[in-house]
Amino acid sequence: MAGHSKWANIQHRKGRQDAARSKLFSKLSKEITVAARMGDPDPEKNPRLRLAVKEARSQSMPKDNIDRAIKKATGGEAEDYEEIRYEGYGPGGVAVIVEAMTDNRNRTASTVRSTFSKHGGNLGETGSVGFMFERKGEITYPVSAGDDDTVMEAAIEAGAEDVDSNEDEHIIYTADTDLNEVSTALEEVLGESETTKLVWRPTTTTELDLEGAQKLMRLIEVLEDDDDIQRVTANLEVSDEIAAQL
């Protein structure tokens, strides 16, 4: 199975190290509430909600917070969030996808547009960079889950499409529609995963030098700091040397 961009590994480490717990929990709660509102409030009967709850648990979000987010949806207390995807180019022509959940489309669009402009990027139309990515399910396990061959065998047996194992973790990819089924099968063999979520996986990448990569990361950091932004993905590729410096 294929190798993978160093940027994915940087993102994973960065997410674990930099995430402010309160902001992270707020975004996880929003996803849980939206998922519960769109379907059954029982995670066992609602695949999207089950994945949202699973991701929240992997980030050590308290059970009370999870239950409260579900009750907001069923009790009619939840804001009317709209899911929006923004696409554009960051410094050096790197393609960037921004996923948002907002109760004010105009506010979020204005903020995203100005953030791109201030940090050397350009916001484009929906679809302007989406063709450079594929929607995939992503499951991560720590290296302690097993050696490369063990995880590869388990992933293939569960129906996964691809595995990228490195010194930090095992990253398993699935078809977007198979994520729930594959993650459930893997749990029986490898135990609880670190993360289970839908992602945009680059099909082509753009390589930057250290200065360009630092500028791009600053753009992403500012975007991710906004409460309306759920996730930011870029098709950045960097060398091992630059990845270490980042």
Structure description:
The structure is a single chain. This protein has three domains: 6-74, Arc Repressor Mutant, subunit A, CATH 1.10.10.200; 82-126 and 206-229, Alpha-Beta Plaits; 132-202, YebC, transcriptional regulation domain (Alpha-Beta Plaits, 2-Layer Sandwich), CATH 3.30.70.980. The chain has nine helices and ten strands. Helix 2 (21-38) runs antiparallel to helix 3, helix 2 (21-38) runs parallel beside helix 4 and helix 6 (148-158) crosses helix 7 (179-190). It is an alpha+beta fold. The strands form three sheets. It has a four-stranded antiparallel sheet. A four-stranded antiparallel sheet has the order 5-6-4-7. Helix content is 46%, strand content 24%. The longest helix has 18 residues, at 21-38.
Write a compact overview of the structure shown.
It is built from 9 helices and 10 strands. With 246 residues, it is of the alpha+beta class.
Write the layout of secondary structure elements.
Layout: H1 6-18, H2 21-38, H3 47-58, H4 63-74, E1 82-89, E2 95-102, H5 105-118, E3 122-124, E4 133-142, H6 148-158, E5 162-165, E6 169-175, H7 179-190, E7 195-202, E8 206-207, H8 210-224, E9 229-234, E10 236-237, H9 240-245
Parallel strand pairs: 8-10
Antiparallel strand pairs: 1-2, 1-3, 2-9, 4-6, 4-7, 5-6
Helix pairs in contact: 2-3, 2-4, 6-7
> Main β-sheet: number of strands, strand sense, barrel status?
4 strands, antiparallel
> Strands of the largest sheet, in order across it?
3-1-2-9
Q: Count every helix, treating DSSP H or I runs of 4 or more residues as helices.
A: 9
What amount of the residues lies in strands? Answer: 15-25%
Structural class: alpha+beta
Poorly predicted sequence stretches spanning 5 or more consecutive residues: none
Query: From the 3D coordinates, which CATH architecture of the largest domain would you assign?
Result: 2-Layer Sandwich
Number of E strands: 10
**The CATH topology of the largest domain, please?**
Alpha-Beta Plaits
Distance between the termini: 26 Å
Report the CATH C-level class of the largest domain: Alpha Beta
Given the C-alpha coordinates, what overall shape results?
A: globular
